[in-house]
């Protein structure tokens, strides 16, 4: 045993000299080898560190993404041109130019996989060696310009096992949850012992990479200071590990988190994003969701012009007939919380706005509802302004989640759909009150003009929400879920969608 220890120690010394390591490091390596030899055949070790990443549950965000049927035989350019030839898409030179760039990206990631550090890299290499992958893409433009459609084309045509497509808000929600979980797992220190700084970001990044290295984010926007403060560290870790990001947004990267609190700390992230994603503009001013749209009514009922409750009762009865289950209230469970469904029948649920947006709700709640129901009725949606900021933000998140999951929506509201949001900026008195609050909290001087106080971010998001709600009233949107169900061998919902779509 002594000869073996001496031999191994000499081998390590030779390697260390060749690597020009310091005498201090050489001594530490010798001690490690000798200790390991003496302790054999011990097979387990103890550590004061937290559990290894392999023992931590996967990020919920990466398990609740949108499943899109892959098309692996052609690239995004040929796929786009085939849809134009079939008449399913209108020829658009601007979109075609973007698709050509996406085809180049598709070719770059074909056969690519992030390089995993080997044994010698871990032992002698730099502590955080950069292994960046191919440059991704950041598509931005006005609502309805086709950003999400083009990103989904690339996603569907990419023959990549580890890929995920997810709404950015949901992704960040679960990143924060995982950070909180990791911090709770930290062992309690004995009284009087100084705590050691712990950074959970690298562990979270490793988990994301283990599950997916091609990440497609829909609606990349930053409105939360908690997101803004960790984005640079999180995405620097991801990009350095070889992750490729494709994102859609209504804003140019330079305008992300515009006027946000402590934006100076966020600005370095913009350079990181632009260094690793090619910026592509789709600001041609055409909202394709508005082309050929029906007039108000049928699936969106203005309470000032009809007996909306009676209309919704009829639709609920019509949809429930084919569900072959009893009408009843239901309770959904999520992370120790409950979501009460007032009345439902199979995959059809009937809510009031109060249930979904006035009560405390998060994106995780809305995703859970989408997993349970394919058609949802929402009654009594009020006209919203920046004075109902919390309810408006929840409603925006609700519609984004329903849209991503292709949930069918029928609703009633106090006003026509185009008047649902009052998009005027806050009154000067409100801004003055915000400045007083900022002074009381001793924030930076420019914080009173932040977008979370002036309402610019909400106004920007309102436009997207109205555009999506308009598309969600079309026959094409309703039948798109039928097509996916048929592809997956599910036939029980098809007749529902076809029947209601004919009402248009």
| Count of helix runs | 19
The overall pLDDT, averaged over residues, is 75
Strand content: 5-15%
The helix-and-strand class reads alpha/beta
Biggest pleated-sheet summary: 6 strands, mixed
Range of helix content = 40-55%
| Global outline | globular
Strands in their spatial order, largest beta sheet: 6-11-10-9-8-7
Label this structure with key terms.
single chain; 504 residues; alpha/beta; six-stranded mixed sheet; five-stranded parallel sheet; 11 strands; disordered N terminus
Protein topology:
Blueprint: H1 2-18, H2 23-39, H3 76-85, H4 93-109, H5 119-124, E1 136-140, H6 147-157, E2 163-167, H7 168-185, H8 201-211, E3 214-218, H9 225-240, E4 244-249, H10 263-276, E5 277-281, E6 300-302, H11 308-320, E7 328-334, E8 337-345, E9 348-352, H12 353-358, H13 363-372, E10 375-381, H14 389-404, E11 408-413, H15 428-441, H16 451-454, H17 456-471, H18 475-487, H19 494-501
Parallel strand pairs: 1-4, 1-5, 2-3, 3-4, 6-11, 9-10, 10-11
Antiparallel strand pairs: 7-8, 8-9
Helix pairs in contact: 1-2, 3-4, 4-6, 8-9, 9-10, 13-14, 14-17, 18-19
């Amino acid at each position: 045993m002594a000869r073996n220890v001496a031999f191994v120690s000499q081998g390590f010394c030779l390697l260390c000299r060749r690597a020009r390591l310091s005498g201090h490091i050489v001594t530490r390596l010798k001690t490690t080898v000798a200790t390991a030899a003496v302790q054999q055949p011990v097979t387990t070790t103890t550590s004061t560190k937290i559990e290894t990443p392999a023992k931590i549950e996967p990020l919920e965000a990466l398990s609740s993404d949108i499943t899109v049927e892959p098309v692996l035989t052609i690239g995004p350019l040929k796929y786009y041109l085939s849809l134009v030839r079939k008449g399913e898409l209108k020829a658009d030179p601007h979109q075609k130019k973007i698709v050509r760039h996406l085809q180049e990206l598709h070719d770059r990631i074909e056969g690519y996989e992030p390089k995993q550090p080997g044994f010698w890299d871990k032992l002698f290499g730099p502590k955080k060696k950069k292994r960046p992958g191919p440059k991704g893409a950041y598509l931005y433009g006005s609502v309805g310009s086709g950003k999400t459609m083009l990103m989904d084309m690339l996603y569907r045509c990419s023959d990549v096992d580890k890929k995920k497509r997810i709404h950015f808000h949901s992704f960040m929600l679960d990143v924060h949850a995982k950070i909180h979980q990791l911090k709770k797992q930290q062992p309690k220190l004995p009284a009087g012992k100084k705590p050691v700084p712990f950074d959970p970001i690298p562990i979270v990044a490793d988990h994301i990479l283990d599950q997916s290295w091609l990440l497609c984010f829909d609606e990349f926007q930053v409105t939360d200071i908690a997101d803004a403060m960790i984005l640079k560290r999180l995405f620097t870790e991801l990009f350095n590990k070889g992750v490729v990001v494709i994102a859609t947004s209504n804003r140019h990267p330079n305008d992300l988190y515009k006027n946000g609190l402590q934006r100076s700390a966020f600005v370095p992230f913009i350079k990181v994003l632009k260094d690793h994603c090619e910026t592509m503009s789709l600001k041609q001013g055409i909202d394709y969701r508005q082309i050929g749209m029906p007039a108000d009514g049928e699936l969106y009922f203005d309470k000032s012009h009809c007996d909306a409750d009676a209309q919704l009762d009829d639709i609920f009865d019509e949809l429930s007939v084919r569900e072959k289950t009893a009408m009843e209230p239901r309770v959904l469970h999520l992370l120790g919380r409950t979501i009460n469904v007032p009345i439902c029948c199979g995959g059809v649920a009937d809510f009031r706005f109060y249930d979904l947006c006035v009560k405390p709700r998060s994106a995780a709640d809305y995703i859970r509802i989408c997993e349970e129901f394919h058609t949802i009725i929402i009654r009594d949606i009020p006209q919203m302004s920046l004075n109902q900021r919390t309810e408006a933000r929840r409603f925006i998140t609700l519609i984004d989640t329903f849209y991503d999951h292709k949930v069918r929506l029928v609703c009633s509201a106090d006003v026509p759909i185009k008047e649902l949001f009052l998009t005027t900026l806050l009154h000067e008195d409100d801004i003055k009150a915000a400045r007083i609050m900022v002074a009381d909290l001793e924030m930076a001087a420019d914080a009173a003009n932040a977008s979370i106080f002036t309402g610019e971010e909400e106004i920007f998001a309102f436009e997207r929400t109205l555009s999506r709600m308009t598309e969600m009233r079309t026959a094409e949107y309703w039948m798109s879920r039928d097509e996916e169900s048929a592809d997956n061998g599910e036939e029980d919902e098809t007749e529902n969608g076809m029947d209601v779509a004919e009402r248009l």
